[in-house]
Amino acid sequence: MNRERSRSLLRKTAHLHANDLELVRRARRGSDAAFHELVDRHAGRLFGLAFSLIGNAADAEDVVQETFLGALRGLRAFKGRSSVKTWLIRILVKQAARHHRSRSTRETVSLDDISEASASVLGKQQAAASTRRLDIRMDVLAALETLSPEHRQVIVLRELQGMSYQEMAEVLRIPRGTVESRLFRARRELKERLKGYLP
Amino acid sequence: MTACEHNRKISAYHDGELPGEECRDLEEHIRECSTCAQELEQLRSLSRLLAAAEMPGMSSDVLERLHSSVSSVREVFVLRTAERVMTVAAALLVVCAVWFWQTAGALDSGIERLEDWEIAAVWPQTEAPAEASAEEMLAQWMVLDLSQENGSD
Ligand SMILES: [Zn+2]
């Protein structure tokens, strides 16, 4: 634990000022610390994205792990045409889709998962105070769960990740027009599922 | 809600993804069309709702496990790379050995040919008489030996 922490401190001082692309270059040349810095920078955001695509913490962790391992394998193939963030999100979306396909009919939105994840991050008291937010999250996740993977992707990338249509087109490798029409249809479905919350 | 032909564009407008001119036209339309105005209001509420359902953050335990998995895969990768390098080195060694063996053979025969050539060119007259005299001497010893053996009886 302590060793990991001091290693992480070392990483931070060594690569703090390098941009993502430089970190990828260093990792490609064999720098472990550079890759760990990429993990530090992107893991949180990727975890949130994985959680919203999959609906539970354990699977989200698996998918984020597969994403970084996939990135490690793909280091040499990454040419820097897109940003490192976009590259990682693209890997994650693919891994999440694979996860979705391989997953059988197990319960995906579990209250325990969400409470546990919240508790570990917010602390128990704050978690209790955010019960209403939790209710909303439960309903939103349940609604997202009813969407097709394609529709869920565009909703999550746009609404939760704040990506532009162009970025989404890059990540999903579909034309911008398809992003637009998919998003329109996904929102129509989602409005229907969540109409209790809407005017 | 009755459908309006502009309804489909509200989604892109809401995202700020409609080109300038289309955007202004639609804004004008929304002021007059209650269907589209309501659609826009709903999309705004939907976005607020989704934002309010913020997903849980990642715990430090998860981050630590991610670092560990990356480290272990990296180690395996380094080991495999080392293994591959060793395999390639071993293969190279074999190839080099075979090449060296063949080349050395060729060099040897080269040296032999060179020596043959040099001997033939430089000592053709001196070498031949020496060999002949040695043969002569051998023949003389044999004759001598035989005569001595016979003579001992
Ligand atoms: Zn209208």
Which features does this protein show?
heterodimer, A: 199 residues, mainly alpha, Rna Polymerase Sigma Factor, Chain: A, B: 153 residues, disordered C terminus, binds zinc ion
Account of the protein in words:
With 199 residues, chain A is an all-alpha fold. Chain A has a domain at 1-107: RNA polymerase sigma factor, region 2, helix turn helix motif (Rna Polymerase Sigma Factor, Chain: A, Orthogonal Bundle). Chain A is built from eleven helices and no strands. Chain A has helices at 2-15, 20-28, 32-54, 57-74, 84-102, 111-122, 124-129, 131-146, 149-160, 165-172, 176-193. In chain A, α3 packs across α4. Chain A is globular, with a radius of gyration of 18 Å. The N and C termini of chain A lie far apart (50 Å). Chain B is mainly α. Chain B folds into three domains: 7-52, no CATH class; 59-111; 116-147, no CATH class. Helix content of chain B is 86%, strand content 0%. Chain B has helices spanning 7-14, 20-32, 34-52, 60-122, 124-152. The relative contact order of chain B is 0.04. Chain A binds chain B through residues 1, 4, 8, 32, 35-36, 39-40, 43-44, 47-48, 51-52, 57, 61, 64-65, 68-69, 72, 114, 117-118, 120-122, 133, 136-137, 139-141, 155, 158-160, 164-165, 180-181, 183-184, 187, 190-191, 194, 197-199, and chain B through 8, 11-12, 15, 17, 38, 41-43, 45-47, 49-59, 61-71, 73-74, 77. Residues 4, 6, 29, 33, 35-36 of chain B line the site of zinc ion.
- Residue share in helix of chain B: over 70%
Counting DSSP H or I runs of 4 or more residues, the number of helices of chain B is 5
Which chains have the largest interface? A-B, 50 and 37 residues
What's the overall geometry of chain B?
Answer: elongated
Radius of gyration of chain B: 50 Å
Question: What compounds are bound to the protein?
Answer: zinc ion
Classify the beta-strand content of chain A into a percent band: under 5%
Structural class of chain B: mainly alpha
SSE string of chain B, helix = H, strand = E? HHHHH
What's the total count of β strands of chain B? 0
Number of helices of chain A: 11
